Amino acid sequence: MNKIYYRRFSLRFPVKLLTASLCWVVCLCIAFLPAVAQDKFRVQGRITDDKNQPLPGVSISEAGTRNGVVSDVEGNYRLEVTNGNSTLHIAFVGYESKDVNVNGVHSLHVSLQAQLKQLNDVVITGYGKTSKKNVIGAISSVSSGEFTQGVIASPSMLLQGKVPGLTITKSGNPNQNPSVILRGPSTLRSGAQEPFYVIDGVPGAPIDMVAPDDIASIDVLKDGASTAIYGARAANGVIMVTTRRPKADQLRIAYNAYVGLEKVSKRLEVLTGDELRKYLADNGQALAAVNNNVYPGTTTPVNTDWQKEVQRDAVSHNHNLSLMGGSKSTTYGFSVNYLDNPGIIEGSSLKRMGLRANIDQRAFNDRLRLGVNIFNSSTTQNNVPDAVLSNMLNYLPTVLVKQPDGSFTEDYAGNIRGSNNPVALIANNSDETKINKFLGNGLAEVKILPGLTYTLSLSTQREQVTRNVYYNSLSVLAKGLNGKATRLAWTNTRNIIESYFNYDKTVGKHNFKVLAGYSWQEDHNGDGFGVSTQGFGSDALSWNNLSLSNPPPGTVVFDNSATSTLTTLRLISYYGRINYQYADKYYFQASLRNDGSSAFGKNNRWGYFPAVSAGWRISQEPFMKKNDLFDDLKLRVSYGVSGNSLGFDPLAAQLQYSNTGRYYDNGNLINAIAPVQNPNPDLKWERTAMFNAGIDFAIFKGRLSGAVDYYDKQTSDLIWNYPVSTTQYITTTLLANVGKVSNKGVEVVLNAEPVSNKNFSWKTSVNVSHNTNSISALSSGRFTLKDIPTAILGGKGQSGNWSQKILEGQPIGTFTLFHYLGKDKDGVSTYQKADGTVTTSPSIGDLMQAGNAQPSINYGWSNTFTYKGFDLNIFIRGVSGNKILNATTAALNTPTDAKMTNILKFTTGESYNDKNSFLISDRFLENGSYLRLDNLTLGYTFKIKSNYISKLRIYGNVNNVFTITDYTGIDPEIDLGGLTPGIDARNYYPKTRSFIFGLNAIF
Prior knowledge:
Residues 464-961 form the TonB-dependent receptor-like beta-barrel domain. The protein is mostly beta strands and 1003 residues long. Among the domains are: 41-111, Immunoglobulin-like; 122-254, Beta Complex (Ferric Hydroxamate Uptake Protein, Chain A, domain 1), CATH 2.170.130.
């Protein structure tokens, strides 16, 4: 039976089925409401701690009912239960909970064992939650108090340096999404390396919809056993985001705000105008008169600092106002967030307004819970042309920004200067993107029977994007076009149904938890269009009123990219999981998910993703009770398989036609349509199998705790375009599953509280991770590929060279470069040929392997000090063992072009006659290791005795305080995502140093 429903049935059948199911369980819930009258059984006793001291305020309840009491100041309690075979559930904060069977005894005294605080912390898992002590997977949890501070545009940056194995990199561009990779890259598809996000139980929700101040905690699921419950989308790990929730009988109003001054943290040292003139004069050269300006009305030579001209000190500010409250049956929460983040490059900026609302209603004695969650964000991004970043470095400093007549100093012909005026690039080109995202989620949770709960979750997501670009009549990017406008608009929607049962049963020392569920998802993407036109009578309207353009015949272009190509993707899943726990010592978990996707070939639309894990809490064994060292000790082992379908074109397995050119037919210009993609009915998921072994421990009464994990992550069936013969296929390539990639590593995290007393405390946390990445295979018996050339950076005389290759046995990001041998007697750079000889004219066949961009060590170290009302946080992070290709320095190292473009101060040590100095070689491959004092925060919390203000804190923060590194470029934090990691290629948006003043107030 084909499990992929046709579109006309895809909505109707699941909705009807789930509606009927919900009605059935609600009826059952109501039917079981009346309690069966039975004779009561009285039980009483005393609750004490492990030192036989009374414990007041302990909760004693009859399991499976709402019947319960709390112990008095002497630890005494009295409770009437249903019968003599009832079970008492005894719980108290900071102590191990106990379930005790009455067994017909009227007098029952119970002693509770003290529990380490951190073991009580709640950890969010797929379709459920548990306490940290019961976790047997590799899961890292970060609470709001531990988040990275700063001007945060994407919530994923809150985790930077906080989670072992999680690598996050980002430039200073406010509109650039950070690169996020967990436990090494495991795919060759650039858009498919990021973890899968789940927000408040909604899978696949965009994380940038949530304001950082609205997040309570983030849990990172890393091993295969933890992620496999999300099946085909979880190969890169799963990040679970939990937002702040209101508490019953509490009204809370909070206002969090900051204002930050952002400055460029470092700039490249290029020559000033006077230094350039001197360098040329020393080498018997001189600038052309047109390139050697003086300030108007003077004889003073021009010294234009182009980096200063396009950069600015930016003032960012963020405001978050929230209201939460409710009664025992109804809770609600609302928040609004506004972020204004101007970039430090003139013309770039990010503005975002976010709204969040939620309401929960309980009924039928808490047997029914209904919840509604709404998120909405509106973002406006302004970007500058990429060319600004390179031209601010190499445009001649000896010319004016504007000529006396007010026109920009510009080389429209392109033969006087080798670059363009960066200020003019900003002034004459506009690029605006508006993004509106909406997420609505409705949830119904029904307690059908004691321990049995049914949950139905319905969610809808909608993303509307409008991009407007205008190059005016003076723009060098649209020379002679009298203005060029491009407008694109598209909408993406996603609808999700999650329906699942949870059953929790305790029998003596045995505890069982069972999950069974069904998931349905439909993505409808690329519903839009785009058009470009030119020839405007005036620049005043920019991209507005495209009908006023006067384009020559054939110059109106319609967008044919993925953003405006309509596609529909459907996913259907069945999943189950069972957890078994015995005596709080032995743990076992097994899960299985069956995923179906319409994106893959008709022969492989379904896949199974199993997982199994086990844990042994050694500290609970009788032979450990007398040990004075370990407060907690647990061994974990797991194995799981998950898939990767992220960033995947829903039409990738289909035969596709597209526009392949234009031709004349009877005097008319007609679009030619032809096949451009072969079908592959056997295309299937990329599969990642991961083995994980770990140990958790706590010693010295919990003052020192930590975890060590080892993992072996093997990904197979990598998807790539392989060359095929046109005697068998229509086109020359086929998207197929062939390759394999390996990631193996170790992660260590240590948490300590060396000092803790009434007035002063010190908490410290350090995490270190090591990962080894390598391509295991690129070929199979059917498809063969020697290597995949990447990173063709271009540059004078280098348009056919590549700087990285994907090779079997080597990591992603392996550099292939010319091997630099020094200068010859004439001062010209020389290189090694493939046969070992020396040459001044290397060719593509002389490229050699020269290290890789993957760090061998990532680390983060956080320290929090408190003294009375003061708090101080110091956070250090860094990487080691990686290489960075400084292609920016190579491109600027052009002494022979110094009459047309600027050069680095580094270049003044080069021979003016070195015709090869700019060639990209291992001469420019640098050590990428760094240690950064990333965050320094000092705050003070006022002691306020008020009925209206419960907390008031002010703080100052410096972000990116200093960096220790041997790297000579702008910043060593280079993007490690995609297929070309670790390359600084004249397009790096400078990192910023932020100075922030903030306020936290709770009313």
